[in-house]
Amino acid sequence: MVELEPLFGANHLSMAFVDSATLILVCFPSIYFLLIKPTLRDLFAKAEAERALTEVRASNEFLRQDAEERTRVEALERTKADARIQFQARILAVVQQAVVATGKGGVILYWNRFAEWMFGWTEEEVKNQTLAKVTGFTSEAARTGLSGFGAVKGWTGEVKAVRRDGTSFPAYLTCSTIWRADGSVAGFVYTFMDITERKSAEAAIRDSEEKYSTVVENSPTGIFIYRNGRLEFANQRFFQMVGRSQNDLAAMDVADLIHPDDWGMVREMWRRRLAGTGATQDYECRILHSGGETRWISGRTALIRYGGEFALLGNIQDITERHKAEQALRDSRETLHRLSARLMSAQESERQRVARELHDSIGQSLSAVKFMVERALEEQTAYGPDSPQSRSLRAVIPVIQSSVEEVRRISMALRPTTLDDLGLLATISWFTREFQLTYPHMEVERLIEIEEFEVPESLKTNIFRIMQEAMNNAAKYSQASRVTVALRQVLGDLQLVVGDNGVGFNPGEVRRHTSAGGFGLASMRERAELFGGSLILTSSPGEGTMIIARWPLPDEAIS
C-alpha cells in the first residue's frame, strides 16, 4: 500500500496534464479568434499607423526643407535681381550719354543724370513731359520716323537737339523699342551723344581735304600714288604730262608710261624705296606721251602709308625744255672746248713758229753781225787798238751779245726748244733753274716721280703751261720763300702739284682776268679740263696756296 502511492500520484499528474492539453486544444481556436487575433490586429494597425505617421513626418520635413530652400533661392534671386537692377541703374546714371525712356505715347519715364547735364532739365522737371516737347525736334522726329512704326523698327541717325536755354547742338540718336511679354510695345529707349566736336573735326577734315585737293589739282607738277605695281591716284597735271585721262587710270600700266630704256632703273629704285633700303629720292627719266612724243621728267618720291600699306607718293615735273637747253649748253660747251683746244694748239704752233723765227732768223742775224764786228776789229790796220773807232766797235759787241741772249730768252719763253727736243722733264728742270736765278729769294723744290715715257704727248705742253703760270703767280703774289713742284702718278692719275708757303688768299674772291695777269686760274682750269682732267685750288689767308691738276692716264701708260 505504501509502495503504490507514488505510482498513483504520478499517474494522477499525467492524467491531469493530458486533460489540460486536451482542454487547451479544444479551447485555443476560440481563444485565438476571440482574444489573440483582435489583439494582434490592433498591434499591427498601431504599427502601421506609427509607420505612416513617421512617413508623414518625414514628408512634412522634406516639404518644409524644400519650401525653405525654395524661399532661400527666391530670396537670393531677388537679391541678385535687385543688385543687377541697382548696377544697371548706376551704369545708366554714370554713362557718358543721355539715356531717356518713354512710354509708347512719348511721355518721359526715365531721364539719367547725363541727360540733365546735356539738356539742362532735371528728371523731376521732365517727368510727364513728352520727349519732343523737351528736346524741341518734333517736326524732325516726324520726318525721321521717331514715332509710330518707324520707331518700332528702331532708328539711328544724326539730329539737331535743343537745350533748355534754346541753344542747339548736333547729336547722334539711337532709338530702341521696349517690348512687353505679350509682344506689344511698352515704350522706347533713346540715347543721345553730343557730336559737336566730331562735327567740328569733320568740318576741319573737309576743309583740309578741300584745301589739299585744291593744291594737288592745281599743282604745276604731276602728283601720283604708286602701290603694288599700280597707280592708285594721279592729279590732272600728271594726266596732262602723259596724255591720258582720269578714266584710263584703272587700266594704266606704269611700264607703258616710262621709256623702256629707263623703266628698269625707275622700277628698281621704286622697289628699293618701298623696301626702305635708302634709295635716292630724286631721279630723271623719259616718259612716253600718248601722242608718241618722248619727254623728260624730274621725279621725287616719298614713302607713305596708304590704305594700310606702304606706298610711294611721287612728284614729277616736265623738264623737257630744260633738258634740251642743257643738252644745247653741253653741245655748245663741247664745241667751245674743241674750239679752245684748237685755239690753244694754234697758239702753241704760232708760239713755236715765232720762237723758231726769232731763234733762226733774228738770233742768227745778230750772231752774224757780232761775228762781222769782231772780224772787222781783227782786220784793222790803219787804226790802233786804242783808237776811237776800235773802242766804238768793241762797245757794240756786248750790246749785240745781249740782244742775242734776249732773243733766245724770248724764244724760250714763247716755246722752250727743250720741250720738243728733250721732253717735259728736262723742260721742268730748265724752267725751275731759270726761275731760281730770276727769283733768288725763293727756294724751289722739285719732285719728279715719273718717267718721260709715262707722260702722254698731248699733255706735255699743257702741264708745262700750268706749271709756268702757277709759278709765275707765286712769284708775283704769294710773297713765299719756298715753291714746290711735283709731278707723279697717283692711283692711275697723272698729278701735277705746285704749292707755296706764301700769304695765301680766299679762293671765293673772283680774280678778274687782265692783260697783265697772264692766263690766270680760269686759263689753268680750262687747260686741265680740255684733256679730261681737273684742277683743284686750295688756299686760305696765311696758309699758302696749292694747285693740283689731275689727268686720268690710259691703261697702257699705267702699266
Commentary on this structure:
The chain contains 17 helices and 15 strands. Strand 14 (534-539) and strand 15 form a beta hairpin. The chain folds into five domains: 1-87; 95-200, PAS domain (Beta-Lactamase); 221-318, PAS domain (Beta-Lactamase, 2-Layer Sandwich), CATH 3.30.450; 333-415; 422-558, Heat Shock Protein 90. With 559 residues, the chain is an alpha+beta fold. The model is unreliable at 1-8, 145-151 and 512-518 (pLDDT under 50). It has helices spanning 4-94, 113-119, 123-126, 131-135, 138-144, 149-153, 196-217, 236-242, 254-257, 260-275, 320-379, 388-414, 417-421, 424-438, 457-478, 520-530, 555-558; strands at residues 98-103, 108-111, 155-162, 168-179, 185-194, 222-227, 230-234, 282-288, 294-306, 309-318, 443-448, 482-490, 493-500, 534-539, 545-552. The strands form three sheets. It has a five-stranded antiparallel sheet with strand order 2-1-5-4-3. It has a five-stranded antiparallel sheet with strand order 7-6-10-9-8. It holds the Pfam family HATPase_c. It comes from Candidatus Geothrix odensensis. GO terms for molecular function: 4 iron, 4 sulfur cluster binding; ATP binding; metal ion binding; phosphorelay sensor kinase activity; protein dimerization activity. Keywords: 4Fe-4S, ATP-binding, Coiled coil, Cytoplasm, Iron, Iron-sulfur, Kinase, Membrane, Metal-binding, Nucleotide-binding, Phosphoprotein, Transferase, Transmembrane, Transmembrane helix, Two-component regulatory system.
